[in-house]
Amino acid sequence: MKLPDKRCAIPDAVAKIKDGDTVMVGGFGVPGTPMTLIHALVAHGARNLTLIKNDANEPGMGIDHLLQSGQATRLITTHLGLNGTAIALMNTGKLAVEFNAQGILAERIRAGGAGIGAILSDIGIGTELANGKQVVEMEGEDYVVEPALRADVALIHADRADSFGNLAYVATARNFNPLMAMAAKCVIAEAETVLPLGELRADDVHTPGVFVDHVTALGELSKEYVVVRR
Amino acid sequence: MKLPDKRCAIPDAVAKIKDGDTVMVGGFGVPGTPMTLIHALVAHGARNLTLIKNDANEPGMGIDHLLQSGQATRLITTHLGLNGTAIALMNTGKLAVEFNAQGILAERIRAGGAGIGAILSDIGIGTELANGKQVVEMEGEDYVVEPALRADVALIHADRADSFGNLAYVATARNFNPLMAMAAKCVIAEAETVLPLGELRADDVHTPGVFVDHVTALGELSKEYVVVRR
Amino acid sequence: MLSDVRERMVARAAREITSGMVVNLGIGLPTKVVNHLPADFPVCLHTENGLTGIGPTLSPEKADRNLIDAGGAYVSTVPGSAFFDSATSFAIVRSGRLDLTMLGAFEVSAAGDLANWKIPGKFSPGVGGGIELAQKARRVVVLTTHTDRAGNPKLRQTSSLPLTARACVSRIFTDMAVIDVSADGFVLVETADGISTADVVAATDAPLIVPDTCLPIF
Amino acid sequence: MLSDVRERMVARAAREITSGMVVNLGIGLPTKVVNHLPADFPVCLHTENGLTGIGPTLSPEKADRNLIDAGGAYVSTVPGSAFFDSATSFAIVRSGRLDLTMLGAFEVSAAGDLANWKIPGKFSPGVGGGIELAQKARRVVVLTTHTDRAGNPKLRQTSSLPLTARACVSRIFTDMAVIDVSADGFVLVETADGISTADVVAATDAPLIVPDTCLPIF
Fold first, then answer.
1. pLDDT over 70 for what percent of chain A?
2. CB B30 within 8 A of CB B224
3. Residue C37: its H or E element
4. Residues 6+ apart with CB under 8 A from D120
């Protein structure tokens, strides 16, 4: 037995993305954002996309390109504080935004990846965050139903991968990547290094390759990956 | 700033366990079962315990000691197939047993550790496993409510630890340990090696020490840890 | 060692695994299927206790005390194996990442209902991971003897035992036949060498649809 | 650089952190608290984007492009740091493993309600991780200027803004005073050097309980 080889060229991987798809994108700020796959999705041109991402990056970086190109019409997120363009698009009705508490967004994505229907949570009970949500009573307490999130495609950035798609992340570039890598029908990972099978220690794998459909090696990193000077 | 030191002698760690406590115990078969902490709990003598563990180990090993001593009166588990003694105790009414689907037990413990109230799951819908459970309709589909599990104490086996309680597991000895290490008020970890701070790589930590209250180094391993010849 | 016919049944079941699949092999007969896969066959084997990329079973002398499969057998890894916790392991199962699971059975009904975890009053060790495998793998096939030790058919019109999951089984491999579960009930697909269609019909407690063609023999 | 009084306010808030605590410091003023902890002080700092054991902030030249805090500042690690994903990070928060969080505020009510994420029509970038920190840390304290830029009190009988969480704030550190939230409302605990009780009363839009003793000055 030998584990299958999932290495793939970036254009071939993103070619599967269709108009109207829901696309999860890893990253929290710059670290872990799959900058190269995002550019490939801009080049590919799929429209009317729903994006799921912690934040909207900063102007001129990451998913801001998909907002600027008009490809994304809906965004499920936690915070847009660093991208005034995204806030302007939201305020002028060009981008529909659904805000989630950050840990609840993480849990909803994880629930999607774990094949469970929803979680019951007390976060936001008694505030406008709970408005319009289904409430369930359990053992005398009220909980909001936070439905699982799944996507058609997840775009993931990893530090290291192997040819089966096992992934390892570095530092705070991990963030939403391992969660999203479980929660999409088609999971595409860009990795700074793709190692031969067996060179990622089995105990150190963060995302088992069984969740990953396509893995692609990055060449030299673009300027979007580097330290931001504000 | 310096991370606090949580090293502790085993008798001092288990001294906190009280009659009537709920105790989670890591392990799936031999790998990951905290054999030494279990013996310490037998010596400590707390009674009327509810145990939460994937399986009941084999006769003469692991939590079987707590069943034999009569300290455990209730067991939340998935499968007792390798311990006829446990099945006999259950059949004669001396041990109350609650069976869960294995992945649902894992999710209920994880939910406890993640501070969420419950998960909604379709596992067991239409079978007797769903009998007596609260059912919630979401978007036209029925789900059973699987409430989070938390414990007073979790007994954890790790391969390596550091003095802050960061833990790393090896091979299939990981299993329920990282989940239970998040889900108890007091988390006690035995580790085959306790390293100085900084010798567990931050990217390779499986359980952040922030979840762990006490960590203790094992000396020479007892015979219960070795390969079982059946 | 398995008898000759069981070995052929297991070998036949192994052909159910196609290139690139992610597969979980249940405890008992299904575990033996791995012996019939070529060394370089592209497949990923999953075990519920936290491993993808199961390698060959090891003797106690060569075993790693921390490396077992869900049945407690000492196994090994292959290049590219990954370890993970029990929640992640069943995330793989429930989110549909298993292309195939092969399970044992006490009974299978003509509707594909599977009973394999409890015989009330006799055997109730707990459901383990079986229910999630049966309910969520994309394809569920069963490996079982055609009848139990007392000679009673395991393939029945309806099952009287507590179910593991409803309408989940697609195909059944027995020591007598390969049988599909269709919308119209059991369909005979292949027979074991030396077994007649009449033998299979007699050992099955439900109508058996027998195609009007020459069936393959395994 | 912070003004002298803000520096003293931050230093005073730092004394709220006791040995062995797990602490999350919110974006803005709370982040500065770390500069007032001794080098060998036993504490674990948590940031929502996936790190326990935050070390000193680094200049762009020394920064690791993959290592930031939740506010986007380039930080470092300490011996014993651990990285984890966003679900685990908020598991720490929601399961009560944070002994203390220090947050900023737009308004705090006399009941301890906190508003710090939205000013309808003006500012609505999203709630981020604030709601879970405010609702679930064992102790929530606020660091804020006593009044907003227009001079309006931030400590009010009731808040008219969308709430982050109800009845969550225990103590408030401002550039004028340290104030506790009690069952009976705001209680003056300490005043800043040069600030009178009357100054604090005048800048607070709610009754202020003033103990009949000599209050400490920070």
1. 100
2. yes
3. none
4. D161, D162
| Domain edges within chain D | 2-209
Cβ-based neighbours of A93, under 8 Å, separated by 6 or more: none
Determine the pLDDT at residue A95.
Answer: 97
Are the C-beta atoms of C61 and B78 separated by less than 8 Å? Answer: no
| pLDDT tens digit sequence for B136-170 | 999 999 999 999 999 999 999 999 999 999 999 99
From B80, B172, B179, residue closest to C68, measured CB to CB: B172
- Pick from A183, A197, A208: CB nearest C88: A208
What angle do the packed helices C86-94 and A102-114 form, to 10 degrees? 60
Predicted confidence (pLDDT) per residue in C170-200, tens digit: 999 999 999 999 999 999 999 999 999 999 9
Residue A18 neighbours by CB under 8 Å, 6+ apart: A46, A152
**How far is the alpha carbon of C52 from chain A, nearest alpha carbon, in Å?**
7
Task: Measure C189 CA to nearest chain B CA, in Å.
Answer: 29
Give A126-141 pLDDT, tens digit per residue: 888 899 999 999 999 9
Residues 6+ apart with CB under 8 A from B84: B59
**CATH homologous superfamily for the domain B19-99+150-219:** Glutaconate Coenzyme A-transferase (3.40.1080.10)
Annotation says D48 is catalytic: yes
Please say whether the beta carbons of C52 and C82 come within 8 A.
yes
**Sheet arrangement for strand D114-115:** D114-115, D107-109, D155-156
Residue C136 burial (10 A CB sphere; 0-12, 13-18, 19+)? buried
Are residues A187 and A212 in contact, defined by beta-carbon separation less than 8 angstroms? yes
* Structural tokens at position A56: 């909207």
- What fold characterizes domain C2-209? Glutaconate Coenzyme A-transferase (3.40.1080)
